[in-house]
């Protein structure tokens, strides 16, 4: 099994609903450093997993659509707790859609799995893994 | 599959028995930076894997019970080689016990796996993974 | 010259005023990982720069007073661009006040300088240095 | 499941063939920081996964045989795109050969899997995993 | 004293002349992760050291002009040992020229110093510092 | 001003005397990741600060002489609190002695300063700087 990973980041405000969140129920914010991993069983004819240029550009575009925003005000996230683990799934699903939609090159069709890690600090991070 | 990870550390003295350990047979020490990962299939109603506050506090408590000690003198480890990989299992099992014992909140009951990585230096680390 | 550094972090929402900030004029947020460095010429009688327990606790208290907040709403920062470099100075000055106020132990009186680095992502950080 | 990981690095020149590589079709170079992970189900009688001294020495030897070279000129890689993901497999296979050849100690016979991560920068890396 | 730092990277082939370089006399390569630090005494009217957008874009442009090349073939470096420390100076001087040439905004005129760190691996890096 | 830095590590047991150390008065241990920085005004004729091979080998030798030991039992440290900041000075002074003794090559004579950072965990480190 092969994989490649590219890193980017985004910076958002948000708040959480639920006692479990304690002081994080208040409006606050986070930098999320995002590691996007793409997996496949065998390399393609160029000896790569995916076009890393396209993968990085797509990840940057997805991060850009989230960044410098208050997620509480975004229609996509109305009434949703945009926890680190939830946002990892959002990014994974958007990358999966880009792959199945053909935005990441023909050879991306062989990608069998994606995992997204979002680092919210030097001491906490979350990961979401899915198949394609 | 979702996971979250929290990081803490502890600092211990110990020695090893067995020729394979070379100079590490002498009494020496280590800082172990601990990454504790909790896994579950779906998020709970708050959109989280586990109460990260409780998870971090429990990990700190487990690290505190090990730290600033000579493991060679601890009853739990008499005659045991407290290797990095072995200590990873000790911490995983103690966290698993906390979860099954109900110390980490009701939603922790859905945790299906734990993995613990102990970093002993910038060039060496060990991981232990288990199910729940 | 000796120094010791301790690390902590805080998570805030804020917005900036001024065209130079581009999309960061919108309400967004950041995790700031804080490295607080204390300097002195010679070590004290215990062979240390400062009581690292007190230094870490004070840094945690200062970070806690900032964290999980929207800085735009904080009286201390009304009408102020709470840039990374500005916040570095805020933390340095609060630590300096703690030292001169005697909150960090007698031997802290020999501290001659503080520098604070705030990391806002894996690719950007700011530092403020001052004397005491 | 237990694993241990050791880190080393190598520095090479190479070029790629294929439009997908864009400017990387030109002769350029990379530092590859290598994380080699060895897995087994249970620890051996010494409470370890593998002799970490032997594992680190073997990894250093494999990195040394690649380092300070232009891979385009190496007989092993003639006409091959030595991508990060491909080089991860090269190292995994050489370590696997060392294990099955008995070069890494008797207890290494219980190793069931290897994974190799090659970091080419702070924002991109590749992994290859295989069984033994 | 305030500073901000931005990070980027470039990937090159090169070789060195001189016995001191040992095997690095052969054509090989490196990834250089670049940290560019800008210093000034007081913040500007926006509470910043420099327009971080312009600083990051200029650093990316300078890295781009070096990357995916064999430095041995570049006219700028004919007969020069492009060591890590030397390349740090090249980048610092190019950034200084951009500042004095007015490419990085009016407020950049108050920058008093630049330092460039080039990381060539997880265990080696070089820094060059200069005034403006 | 130019500098280069090399990284190594050592693993020791020790205890501290003095109430300020709290639980660290007990016998415990640490991994110290060591960053050794060498400074000079201008590069030598080979465009380097120092022979990085010799510098790394000397640092490894100094770390090796400390590692896998209980510092409380070492004659050099009898009755001494081997704090992180103190150990940084020990290593700096040993490297300085190697330079002035001619062990690190002729061009090392131009080194004007050394600084040593010892990282004891992901959240604490100490630095000692000296001239030559």
C-alpha Rg of chain A, in Å?
16 Å
Shape of chain A: elongated
- Multimerization state: homohexamer
Q: What is the CATH topology of the domain at 31-48 and 61-114 in chain A?
A: Tetrahydropterin Synthase, Chain A
Any idea what the CATH superfamily of the domain at 31-48 and 61-114 in chain A is called? 6-pyruvoyl tetrahydropterin synthase/QueD
Order of helices and strands of chain A: EEHEHEE
Q: Estimate the strand proportion of chain A.
A: 25-35%
- Describe the sheet with the most strands of chain A: 5 strands, mixed
Distance between the termini of chain A: 15 Å
Plain-language structure description:
The structure is a homohexamer of 132-residue chains. By secondary structure, the first copy, chain A, is an alpha+beta fold. Chain A has a domain at 31-48 and 61-114: 6-pyruvoyl tetrahydropterin synthase/QueD (Tetrahydropterin Synthase, Chain A, 2-Layer Sandwich), CATH 3.30.479. Chain A has helices at residues 52-66, 84-100; strands at 2-14, 28-40, 69-70, 113-121, 124-131. Chain A has a five-stranded mixed β-sheet. In chain A, strand 4 (113-121) and strand 5 (124-131) form a beta hairpin. The longest helix of chain A is centred in the last third of the chain and has 17 residues, at 84-100. The mean pLDDT of chain A is 97. Chains in contact: A-B, A-C, A-D, B-D, B-F, C-E, C-F, D-E, E-F. The D-E interface holds D 7, 9, 11-14, 23-24, 26-31, 33, 67-70, 73, 120-123 and E 7, 9, 11-14, 23-24, 26-31, 33, 67-70, 73, 120-123. Strand 1 (2-14) of chain C pairs antiparallel with strand 5 of chain F.
């Amino acid at each position: 099994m092969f994989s490649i990973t590219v890193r980017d980041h985004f910076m958002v405000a948000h708040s959480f609903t639920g006692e479990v969140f304690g002081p994080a129920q208040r409006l606050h914010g986070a930098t999320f450093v995002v590691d996007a991993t793409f997996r496949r069983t065998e390399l393609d004819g160029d000896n790569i997993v995916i076009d890393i240029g396209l993968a990085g550009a797509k990840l940057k575009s997805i991060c850009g659509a989230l960044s410098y925003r208050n997620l509480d005000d975004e229609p996509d996230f109305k009434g949703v707790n945009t926890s680190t683990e939830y946002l990892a799934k959002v990014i994974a699903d958007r990358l999966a859609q880009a792959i199945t939609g053909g935005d990441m090159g023909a050879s991306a069709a062989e990608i069998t799995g994606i995992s997204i890690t979002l680092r919210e600090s030097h001491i906490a991070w979350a990961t979401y893994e899915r198949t394609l």
